[in-house]
Amino acid sequence: MMFGYADEWWVVLFVPVLLWVPFGPFVMGGLGVWCARRPGRWPRAWSVLSPLVPVGVSATAVLLPTDTWDETGHWDDVLGYFLVYVLGITVLPWLLGYGITRVVRGARARRERGEL
């Protein structure tokens, strides 16, 4: 029971969702860099586990009201959520961090071998 109401416990689940919007791209970019520098099981596991709560809770909030599936525009909302929240905030920063780090490390390795 929070603040005198019994049904406000769900707010605890939405706090990570609200924090993921401004800080998620930086976290995922850092995890992408970490995966590129140290390939292995743990960096990749953290890359999947870190966005699990904010993306899972927000996906549930978008997909769960099944009575609104018949309304026009609901599929547009789901597609917009997937494109912005999942791909734009979570996947794209990880790919950018991973790709840029791999390219920079490859260019440095070629330069040190004298190929450039």
Structural class based on helices, strands and sheet pairing: mainly alpha
* Largest β-sheet summary: none
> Order of SSEs, N→C?
HHHH
Question: How much helicity do the residues have?
Answer: over 70%
Outline: elongated
Distance between the termini: 65 Å
Low-confidence stretches: none
The fraction of residues in strands falls at: under 5%
| H/I helix tally | 4
Mean pLDDT: 87
The number of strands is 0
Spatial extent as radius of gyration: 19 Å
Sequence-ordered SSE layout with sheet pairings:
Blueprint: H1 11-37, H2 41-49, H3 52-63, H4 74-113
Account of the protein in words:
- With 116 residues, this protein is mostly helical.
- Helix content is 76%, strand content 0%.
- The chain has helices spanning 11-37, 41-49, 52-63, 74-113.
- The longest helix has 40 residues, at 74-113.
- The protein is elongated, with a radius of gyration of 19 Å.
- The mean pLDDT is 87.
